[in-house]
Structure formats: structure tokens, C-alpha cells
Design a protein that fits this description.
The complex is a heterodimer of chains A (373) and B (799). Helices cover 41% and strands 18% of the residues of chain A. By secondary structure, chain A is of the alpha/beta class. Chain B is of the alpha+beta class and 799 residues long. Helices cover 41% and strands 20% of the residues of chain B. Chain B is built from 23 helices and 27 strands.
């Protein structure tokens, strides 16, 4: 399984070797520019909302054609390129030594570099630089062995995997070998291999409370569901693993969130990709993912307890109506209905009909409607 | 030349009073009362004033005689008094004149002249003599020698304060080492508390008189202060001029009119004013007639065939043959049709001309009565009310906004036509305005269509454009002089007519070049600029303003800039706050010119000297002590323009400096960053460290010059990374003889070194090369001119 974007699968080098090679290529590009008497420069897609395009073919969001050039022509540009070369050297060495570090560590580490000009002024600068390097090298952050600070989310269900850990290969059954907390998704999910499974579908759940309710009610067991906890806006690792479950095991993916506009965006980023990581959309997004609920129509049909929509909720719903990701009959009907009733509901609101309502009634009904079971 | 007194600010009162009641009060009493105005109010000040009067006189005297001034000033303590000596190399003063020059107040050759001189009233030096005699009781000691005299003459004299007459106490021949010149020695009660002002005065005198050599010796100095000459060029000699028409007041004009020998206004203008010839005089008299008589409305003449104009004229002619009558009538009609618009005057001229033609052709006389009748008939045809309404409608319609209601415009035109009640349709501009107002008011009411101020003025303007100057004779000079309103019409006409600026040969500006020279001489700065404006006029007197700025270098930073004020080359050291020049400098927003100025007004701050020189045949001072220029708007405007012009130069200098600084900083950062980057990429790629000089040169838009020797072939290369073409002068100093270099390079041998020079012109972005054979071990040192050091990268040439 290749982790590089757009690289042949029949390449026998390790991801580390390939990532390192790409970094050296970038350094060589600067080298050749300088040696040729040219001003070193780096061309990147413009990373703004205005340069995000919906790729009809793959159903995900990717960067458009507009590019910006970072050039040593200005003092600021020269400093950025210097930082980039320092970061390239650091990452190349890290890969060579098969070590890893966090984004925050990179930021602090820059303080120790021998050039004062190369030190990052804040972490957002170094985070952004790593993203830039992902874009120009086509290598993901995970393959640079860079990980975010926060720990990954969890999954639970009838799935058996093999994880390459620093301490050797581990074979884990994600239901039998784990506690109620489930299996923790590693920062680079490409280090795991799916060995066997008995899953019918993947159920990605927004809130921890609902995830625990499903586990307590034995939903994963009864329905052969692989329950993935999204923990709010999902981390890259969570989205990557979801995509792999769909692509490699052919499992249908459904997303279960609160019934408010922000939760629809969580679904959107699972299904279509986000602006910040649009260069990785093809690697992270699962366009086939379906939305379970809470739907605005559920609020009506199940007469759920609700909160009124705030002004910012209304604005967010209206901007979603303008968003091509949501320009389907289904979403237009649902959003207009929600604007009409002026209400939103949390996942836990289903508890108003009893603690087992969600597992006994709501989900089976919805999944049946969606042809998932 | 008629003599009259110009306004001298506050000084006019003093001089007039003095002149009128000279016998009534003693001169000593006058002096006592006015010494503050004359600059002798304190012992400290008196000494500076006395030096100033002495030096001003000396400079004027030497210049008038065409000598480069060499002036020596000495101040010495003598008991309780100070003794002042001022000595010059001027032409000397004749024996007869000495007593009057030094011993009589208000004696001088300049008071009535319109010519630029340092002194103007003839009060200065004699006031110093008087002050000395009143405080010390000692006479003034004068030594003077003219070129013709074998020996110098020595005088001791006092002012007879009752009579304002000099009283010579001692007169004798004496020996003096100067071939010509004057020396005055005064003893006076004084002190040196104003030493700084004294030094400022002398130093600043040197700045604006770079052709003078000045030496100052005073008790506080170990050795005398010498200001050497920076140029041998004397200021241009000045000419006396007549007043300029734009600069006289009504009272002055009436005085001139009363005194002139001229009979006609045209002659008077040409005789008494500068820059007025026949043509200008005609333009002034036309403008005068327009104001005095008003103008005649001219109307569009009817086209041939559509009116009975010729028939009407023919009908009005009696007792002539029908051929002559027809010829006359057709001629009149033709002539009128030749005009776009014809006024009553044009009709009269047409009738006169036609009559003359017909008389010549037909031998029949068309006398005054016939012509008058013909004129009346033609004028009636021309001013047919229906035609006028159409004509007037066109004028009004064009002059007003297209949004105006058409009926209202028509209504206005109709009413306007009725207002021309004078038989010849004469009206002044004020009449026209009143016609418009009287017509527009009812129209506004009737049509509910506003005719605002702008619309009304536009209509008046359009009507005024359609009027013509009348043919009446201009009033005689004596009639103008006898009537204040008429004279006022003439004055208005003079002011309204464009007239050349007064000649400047009566002025001796320092010139921008020498102002800059003077600043360079006395101030060690980074940047100098100077400006001389064109001459302008105030109160009939031409004046020129000059400004200069010195900036940076050794000039003191951290406080307000130094403002040096000069009038007719004399430094103004006192009363800075009362001076118009100071006001103007404070009023300018210097932040626009890159200087600090808290709040955007007041004295700007920074290491700068601002110099302002006002040269005029009559500089208006706030008082007789001549310390501050009065707030005359014309002068203030010119001062502002001159200072701003100089300040613009300063600004571009500072901008250039800032951009060079930014450039230097950028270069500093980049020459740190790029090599570090090169190190890193060489580590990562495991290749030899790449050269960054060319990339750096390209970033800095630089010009790179390099010299390489390989296998006995030397290559001299100039790369132009900038976006404009560069002329570069490269000299390669070789330690071996170049073999047969191309002709475009020159080679000179000197002490075993070969100087190869090449001056290529390199287009933007291009590279040029020069190759030649040379010993393989030869090395070269490169020298490059024509490119600012900040923009130059020299590589590979060093030994």
C-alpha cells in the first residue's frame, strides 16, 4: 500500500526512502537555482478559499491552478526559504535515523539551529511550512514522521489488524483484544494492515457520549459495526483510516453527528476534504461516506428535544446552501427544513425516547433506509 | 523720476514724521524715543547693530565700486567702553561727503531709489555715530581714502543734535596702508552679551556674500575669525527701475497722475511704469474703458436674404442717387455680416467705412446726418426684439446646465433682452449682473426653476464675452487724477491686465549656485540644495526669493533646524518670531518632506539649515531696525514656494538615502541568509557548496563584474542584473602584459603594471564579455566606476 500521492505502487523502496528522496530533490532544486545564478524560489498552489476547486471526478476538494511564488527576492521570502532548507535537512536526517517528532517539537527545535534567521517565530509558521513541504514534495506529513500533538481517536469493532510499532509487529483484534476504550488509531495509520474482519459497515460517530452509548449497548457486536470515534472535527489519521476501511475492505461508511450546521461540516470533511489539507483530499476523503443523522427531518419525525438556532447557526446553514459540497437535493431539503423549524438537536437528544432508542430503533431504521443493512 | 514714498511697514510713520517735523524736535530726542526701533535699545544689541550697519555700508560701497569686499571688524574693550572698528576696501568717500554720510541722519543716495541695496533709509551708520556720541561722549573717527587721493583723510566728527548737521571737530591728512577704503572707529557703552548674535551675523554674512572676505576680532576670541572668499564673482550690478503696474496703490497712482507730464493715459503708463509699451498700454486702456464706459453688447447680425437690413439702411438715406444709396446700403450690410457679433460701435464703423468707399466710387458725399440716420436704421434692424430674444436664448442656453427647463431659459432670455435699455446697449459688468438678477428672480418664481449663483455668474460671463470694448476716447490724465472713482477704474484695469514681471536687473539675487556654495563653505553637511525663484512684485517693487537647505553631515541633530533669514544679503539675527519668513517655515508641513515636525506645524527638527533670502528694491520690514520681514502676502507666497522647492530636493535626497539604507539592510540580511541556505542545500544534496553571488547580484539588481583567467585566456565579464542599461567603466590592473587585447579596451603600462580599461554599455539583464590572452599566472585587480558601490558586486578579480 503506497502512502505517496500519485506514485506507482510497484516501488520497492520504503516510504521513508522515498520521502527522503523527495526532500533531497527539493534541496537540489534550490541548489540548481543558486548555482545557475537564478534567484531561489518555491512555487506553491495558492492556499486560500478562492483557490479550492471541487474535483467532480473524485468527488473531493483540491487546490485550483493559481500559484504563489515564494522567492528569495525579498528579505521575508529569503528567510522563509532558509527555514525551509533547515526543515528539509532536519526531516531528511530524521528519516535517515528512523525517528519521529511532533510539530511542536519542530518549532522548539528550530531555536537550536545555528542560524538565528532560520528559527520559527511561532508554531503556526512551522506547521504551515510542513504543509508546504507536503505540497511540493507530494509526501505526507506522516511519511516525514511528523505527528500532531494530540493522540489519535479510537475505533472498536470486529476487525483484526497488524500494526508495525516501534517495538515490533502487533496483531490486534479491535474488539476482543481491546478494552471498552477501543483501539487507538496511530498517528500514521499506514503502519497498520487489515488482516481480517467481520464488519458490515463503518459507523463514524461525532461525540464521545454517543460512542460510549453504542459500545455499552453492544451495537458493534450486534450489528457488526466498526464504530470510529471522530472526536469532533476528525484528525487526519482518523480520516485516513476511514478512507482505507472503505477502499480496502469495501465497507460502507456512514457518519453519525449532531443535527447542527457545524456537524454537517464534520461530515463534509470526512466525505469531501477540507481547505487546509486540500492537497491531501484524494488521500484523506471518502466521497462515498453517507450521512446518518441527526437529520433535521429526524427532529420533526422523532419529535426530539431541541435548542433554537443561533444567528451564527443560521449564517452557517445559509453559507452551506451556497457551498457546492452541499448542493444536492437531499441537503437542500434538509437545510431548508432546519431553517424553517429554526431548531437543532444533539445526538444524545435521542435519549429522550429511552437509552436504547438509538440502537434499537433509530439507527436500524436509518441504516435500513440507506440500504446499509 | 517722480519721488514718492512707498509703504515701509511700520517705518513709514517714523520717516514721514521725521521729515515733516525735523525742525520741531531735536534729533537726539528723536533717537532717544526711537532707539529700540533702530536696534540700539540695549548695550548688547547696540554693538551688534553698529557692526551690522558698518559692515552693510562697507559691502554696499565696495560692490558699487566693483571691488571684491575685504572687511575687517574689530571690537576692543577700552576702559568702561567698547571700541568698534569697521574697515573696508571700498572706493572711499570724498572729503565733502564724509561729514554728511556719517554725521547727518537720513542722508543717503538710496532712499528714493528703486534699486536693491543693503541700506535703504540712510539712518544706519549715522545712528551708530549718534549712539556712540550719546553714550561715550566721544566723536566718531573716520579715515577714508579714495583712489585719486595720495593720502588718506582723517576726521573726527559728531552730530549736532539740534540741527541734525555734522560737526567736524578734527580734519587732517594721514597715512593709511589701504590704497582706498574707509575706516570708522566708534567708542560706545556696550557689552558682549550678544556675542552669539554677533558671530551669527558675521558668519551668515559670509554665507550669502561668498564674494566677500570678512575678518572679525573681538576680546573673546584668541585669534580673529576669518571668512574667506569662495568666489571672485561680484553680484550683478543693479539698475534702478520704475514701479510696476501691479504694485501700486490708489494713493500712489493718484500722486503719479498728478505729477506726470503726460497728457494721455497711454503715455502716462508707458512713461511712469516699467514693462509697459504701446501694446500693454493699449490693453490697459481697453480694460480701463471697459470699466469706465462699460462695454457695448454685440448681437449676431442677420444673414443675407433673411432680413431687410440693407433695405432699411437704403430707406434711411435721403437725397442720394439710387446707385450710390444701394451701394452704400449693401456695403454697410456686408460689413456687419462680416462680424460674428456686431455692437453699436461696429455699426458706426461700418457706416463710416461704407461712406468713405461710396464717396470714392461714386463721388457722392455721405455726411454726418446721413450716416447717423443709416446707423440708426441698421441698429434698429440689428436689434429687432424677436431676433435678440433668439440670440439671447442661445447665449443663456449654452451658459446654463442642460437640465434647466427650456421654458425657464426662454423666459430668462426674454426678460434679459428687455434690460438693455441704453440706446447703444452699453453696460458694465456690474450692470450685466444686475440685469441677470432682475431677470432671474421672477423666472425662478414663475417656472419654479432655480438659477443659483453659479448659473447666474455663467450667464453674466457669457454676456460679457459677447460685449465689445467701446470706441470712446480714454479720459485724459488730468480727468483721471481729478476723480477718485475714475482713478480706481484705471487701477483695476492695470491689475486685471497681464503684464510681464518687472525686470530683475534692479535686483541682485545671490543665485542658487552661490547660495549652495555659501552653505557648503560654512556648513559641513551631506546634502545641499538651493533655489532662486523668478521675480515677483509687491507694492510696485520687484522681489526675488531664494532658499537653500543643507542637511546631515556634521550638522547638529536632535533639535529644531537652523533658520537663516536674509534680506538683501543682510542676515536677520533678531526678532525671529516676528518674521514672515519664520511664519512661513513653521506653517509648512515638513513631514511631507521627510523631516520630523511634531504636530505638523512649527519649526521642523533635524540636522538641517534652512536659508531664506528676500531680495527687493524695498524689503518690507516690521520696523526700522530691519530685523524681521513684514507679513506681505506676495512675499510669503514666494517664500513658501521657494522653501517647498528646496524641500522637495531634500525629500528626494532623503528618499534616495532611505532606499539605499533599505537596500543595504536587505543586502546584509540576504548575504547572511543565502550562504546559509547554500550550506544547507549542499549538506542535504551532498554536493559542493553552490555560489550565491550571482543570485545575490540578481536579487539586488546589481551590476556584477568578474575577471577570470583560464588556460591563458582572460575573460572580463560585466553582468547587468538591473532593469535599466548601465554605463560601466572597468579597469583591470594586471601584473602581466595582456596579449593583443581587442581595440575597444585601452591598455596603458605603468611601473610594470598594465591598466586595461574598458567602458562597455550593458543593456538591462545582459552580459558582456571581453576576452584576451594573458600569461596563465596573471592576476588582476578590478576597479569599477559608473555604478554606485551599493549596487556593485566585484568577483574573481582580486589577487
Amino acid at each position: 500500500m503506497s502512502t505517496d500521492v500519485g506514485v506507482d505502487d510497484d516501488d520497492d523502496r520504503t516510504p521513508e526512502e522515498r520521502a527522503r528522496e523527495r526532500l533531497v530533490d527539493l534541496a537540489a532544486q534550490f541548489y540548481d537555482q543558486m548555482a545557475g545564478g537564478d534567484v531561489p524560489e518555491l512555487r506553491l498552489p495558492t492556499r486560500s478559499k478562492s483557490n479550492i476547486e471541487y474535483d467532480e471526478e473524485s468527488g473531493v476538494w483540491v487546490y485550483g491552478d493559481r500559484t504563489s511564488t515564494r522567492s528569495a527576492n525579498s528579505v521575508g521570502g529569503a528567510r522563509k526559504l532558509l527555514k525551509a532548507t533547515y526543515a528539509v535537512e532536519f526531516l531528511a536526517r530524521q528519516l535517515e535515523q528512523n525517528r519521529s517528532s511532533t510539530l511542536r517539537e519542530l518549532y522548539y527545535l528550530s531555536e537550536s539551529w545555528d542560524s538565528e534567521e532560520a528559527a520559527f517565530s511561532d508554531q503556526s509558521e512551522s506547521d504551515k511550512l510542513v504543509e508546504d513541504l507536503e505540497i511540493v514534495t507530494g509526501v505526507t506529513r506522516e511519511d516525514f514522521h511528523m505527528r500532531p500533538e494530540e493522540s489519535g481517536a479510537t475505533l472498536i469493532g470486529p476487525l483484526e489488524i497488524v500494526e508495525q510499532t516501534r517495538r515490533g509487529e502487533r496483531r490486534i483484534h479491535c474488539q476482543e483484544d481491546v478494552g471498552e476504550g477501543g483501539y487507538q488509531i496511530p498517528n500514521n495509520p499506514d503502519t497498520i494492515e487489515f488482516v481480517d474482519h467481520d464488519c458490515a459497515f463503518v459507523l463514524a460517530v461525532e461525540t464521545g457520549g454517543m460512542r460510549d452509548r453504542l459500545v455499552e449497548n453492544g451495537f458493534d457486536d450486534e450489528m457488526a459495526a466498526l464504530v470510529v470515534h471522530l472526536k469532533g472535527q476528525p484528525a487526519r489519521a482518523t480520516r485516513r483510516v476511514t478512507k482505507r476501511l472503505h477502499d480496502e475492505l469495501g465497507l460502507p461508511v456512514v457518519v453519525f453527528t449532531d443535527g447542527d450546521p457545524w456537524s454537517y461540516r464534520i461530515y463534509g470533511s470526512v466525505a469531501y476534504g477540507s481547505i487546509k489539507s486540500a492537497h491531501l483530499s484524494k488521500y484523506l476523503a471518502t466521497p462515498e461516506a453517507q450521512f446518518v443523522g441527526i437529520q433535521p427531518s429526524d427532529i420533526v419525525s422523532y419529535d426530539l428535544p431541541t435548542d433554537p438556532l443561533s444567528d451564527s447557526d443560521v449564517n452557517a446553514l445559509e453559507s452551506e446552501l451556497e457551498d457546492p459540497r452541499f448542493q444536492t437535493d437531499y441537503w437542500e431539503d434538509q437545510i431548508e427544513l432546519q431553517l424553517d423549524i429554526g431548531k437543532k438537536a444533539e445526538q444524545q437528544a435521542l435519549a429522550a425516547r429511552g437509552l436504547d432508542f438509538v440502537t434499537d430503533t433509530y439507527l436500524p431504521e436509518r441504516l435500513d433506509e440507506m440500504d446499509v443493512i | 523720476m517722480t519721488s514718492f514714498q512707498t509703504e515701509l511697514g511700520g517705518g513709514a510713520g517714523v520717516a514721514e514724521e521725521l521729515a515733516e517735523s525735523q525742525r520741531a524736535i531735536s534729533i537726539a530726542e528723536f533717537f532717544e524715543k526711537n532707539k529700540h526701533m533702530l536696534g540700539f535699545d540695549s548695550g548688547a544689541r547696540a554693538l551688534v547693530t553698529a557692526v551690522k550697519e558698518g559692515v552693510d555700508n562697507s559691502l554696499d560701497a565696495a560692490e558699487e565700486a566693483g571691488h571684491l569686499p575685504d572687511i575687517y571688524v574689530e571690537i576692543r574693550e577700552v576702559g568702561d567702553y567698547y571700541r568698534l572698528v569697521v574697515e573696508d576696501n571700498g572706493p572711499g568717500i570724498t572729503r565733502e561727503q564724509v561729514p554728511r554720510v556719517f554725521g547727518k541722519l537720513l542722508y543717503g543716495s538710496r532712499f528714493h531709489k528703486r534699486e536693491q541695496n543693503r541700506g535703504q533709509q540712510g539712518i544706519g551708520i549715522s545712528a551708530a555715530v549718534l549712539y556712540s556720541q550719546l553714550t561715550s561722549g566721544k566723536p566718531a573717527k573716520i579715515t577714508s581714502r579714495t583712489q585719486e587721493q595720495d593720502r588718506a583723510r582723517y576726521f573726527e566728527l559728531v552730530v549736532d543734535t539740534d540741527e541734525n548737521e555734522p560737526e567736524v571737530r578734527v580734519e587732517d591728512g594721514t597715512t593709511w596702508d589701504r590704497a582706498h577704503g574707509t575706516r570708522i572707529e566708534l567708542e560706545m557703552e556696550a557689552n558682549m552679551r550678544s556675542r552669539q548674535a554677533l558671530h551669527d551675523y558675521v558668519a551668515q554674512t559670509a554665507v550669502v556674500n561668498p564674494h566677500a572676505r570678512v575678518e572679525l576680532r573681538e576680546p573673546g576670541l584668541d585669534e580673529s575669525l576669518k571668512f574667506e572668499r569662495a568666489t571672485d564673482q561680484l553680484p550683478a550690478e543693479t539698475e534702478e527701475i520704475r514701479p510696476h503696474p501691479h504694485g501700486v496703490e490708489l494713493g500712489q497712482l493718484i500722486k503719479l497722475l498728478e505729477a506726470t507730464d503726460s497728457y494721455s493715459v497711454s503715455g502716462f503708463l508707458q512713461e511712469e511704469f516699467t514693462r509697459v509699451g504701446t501694446k500693454t498700454a493699449r490693453r490697459v486702456t481697453d480694460a480701463f474703458r471697459d470699466r469706465y464706459f462699460g462695454r457695448e453688447m454685440a448681437w449676431t447680425p442677420p444673414r443675407a436674404g433673411v432680413s431687410s437690413l440693407a433695405d432699411d439702411v437704403a430707406e434711411a438715406v435721403a437725397n442720394k442717387t439710387s446707385e450710390a444709396t444701394a451701394a452704400f446700403a449693401d456695403d454697410v450690410a456686408d460689413r456687419l455680416r462680416g462680424h460674428d457679433r456686431a455692437s453699436h460701435g461696429a455699426v458706426v464703423r461700418a457706416a463710416d467705412a461704407a461712406a468713405a468707399d461710396v464717396e470714392a466710387a461714386h463721388g457722392e458725399t455721405f455726411g454726418a446726418t446721413v450716416r447717423e440716420n443709416a446707423v440708426a436704421a441698421a441698429w434698429a434692424a440689428l436689434t429687432d426684439p424677436d431676433r435678440l430674444r433668439t440670440d439671447c436664448y442661445r447665449l443663456v442656453d449654452e451658459a446654463t446646465s442642460t437640465r434647466k427647463d427650456d421654458d425657464a431659459v426662454e423666459g430668462l432670455a426674454e426678460r434679459l433682452v428687455e434690460k438693455f435699455d441704453d440706446s447703444r446697449h452699453r453696460a458694465t459688468r456690474a450692470d450685466l449682473r444686475s440685469y441677470v438678477d432682475r431677470s432671474a428672480d421672477p423666472v425662478e418664481e414663475a417656472f419654479d426653476e432655480p438659477f443659483g449663483e453659479t448659473a447666474r455668474e455663467n450667464v453674466v460671463e457669457a454676456l460679457w464675452d459677447a460685449t465689445r470694448t467701446v470706441d470712446d476716447d480714454v479720459p485724459r490724465v488730468r480727468d483721471v487724477a481729478g476723480d477718485r472713482d475714475t482713478a480706481s477704474n484705471l487701477l483695476e484695469a492695470m491689475r486685471a491686465t497681464e503684464i510681464l514681471s518687472p525686470p530683475t536687473d534692479c535686483l541682485a539675487p545671490i543665485t542658487a549656485e552661490l547660495v549652495e556654495e555659501g552653505l557648503r563653505k560654512e556648513y559641513d553637511a551631506d546634502f545641499y540644495t538651493a533655489v532662486t525663484r523668478d521675480a515677483e512684485v509687491h507694492g510696485g517693487d520687484p522681489f526675488v526669493v531664494e532658499a537653500g537647505i543643507a542637511y546631515g553631515g556634521e550638522l547638529e541633530d536632535g533639535g529644531p533646524v537652523d533658520l537663516l533669514r536674509f534680506a538683501n544679503r543682510v542676515p536677520l539675527v533678531y526678532q525671529r518670531g516676528a518674521c514672515a519668513v519664520t511664519d512661513v517655515v513653521k506653517r509648512i508641513d515638513w513631514r511631507n518632506y521627510e523631516l520630523t515636525q511634531p504636530g505638523g506645524s512649527g519649526m521642523p527638527q533635524g540636522p538641517a539649515v534652512v536659508l531664506v533670502h528676500v531680495a527687493s528694491t524695498n524689503v518690507p520690514f516690521t520696523s526700522e531696525s530691519k530685523d524681521a520681514v513684514a507679513n506681505v502676502p506676495e512675499i510669503e507666497d514666494e517664500v513658501e514656494l521657494a522653501v517647498r522647492e528646496a524641500a522637495r530636493d531634500l525629500k528626494s535626497h532623503l528618499k534616495r538615502r532611505q532606499s539605499l539604507n533599505r537596500r543595504r539592510r536587505k543586502r546584509e540580511v540576504l548575504s547572511e541568509v543565502l550562504p546559509q541556505m547554500a550550506d544547507k542545500v549542499s549538506t542535504v544534496t551532498d554536493r559542493e557548496r553552490p555560489e550565491v553571488e550571482r543570485a545575490l547580484a540578481r536579487i539586488m539588481n546589481n551590476v556584477g563584474v568578474a575577471h577570470e583567467v583560464a588556460d591563458g585566456t582572460a575573460t572580463l565579464r560585466v553582468r547587468n542584473h538591473s532593469d535599466r542599461s548601465e554605463e560601466v567603466e572597468v579597469t583591470a590592473i594586471l601584473d602581466a602584459e595582456p596579449d593583443d587585447p581587442p581595440d575597444r579596451a585601452g591598455v596603458v603600462e605603468m611601473d610594470g603594471e598594465w591598466f586595461l580599461t574598458w567602458e562597455p554599455s550593458v543593456d538591462a539583464g545582459e552580459t558582456v564579455e571581453l576576452t584576451y590572452d594573458v600569461d596563465a599566472d596573471a592576476s588582476a585587480e578590478l576597479q569599477v566606476d559608473g555604478v554606485a558601490p551599493e549596487r556593485l558586486t566585484v568577483a574573481g578579480g582580486g589577487r
